[in-house]
Amino acid sequence: MAREHFTRMDQSSEAQWQFILSETQQEQSLVPDRILAMLRSLDKVYGGFGVSQLHHALQTATMARRDNASDEVVLAALCHDIGKAISIPNHAQIGAEIVRKYVSEHTYHVLRTHQDFQGRHYYEYFGQPGNLRDAYRNEPWFALAEQFTDEWDQQAFDPAYKVLPLEELEPLVRQFFGTFQI
Question: Which of 22, 46, 111, 152 meets the CB 3.0–4.6 Å disulfide criterion with 63?
Answer without folding.
Answer: 152
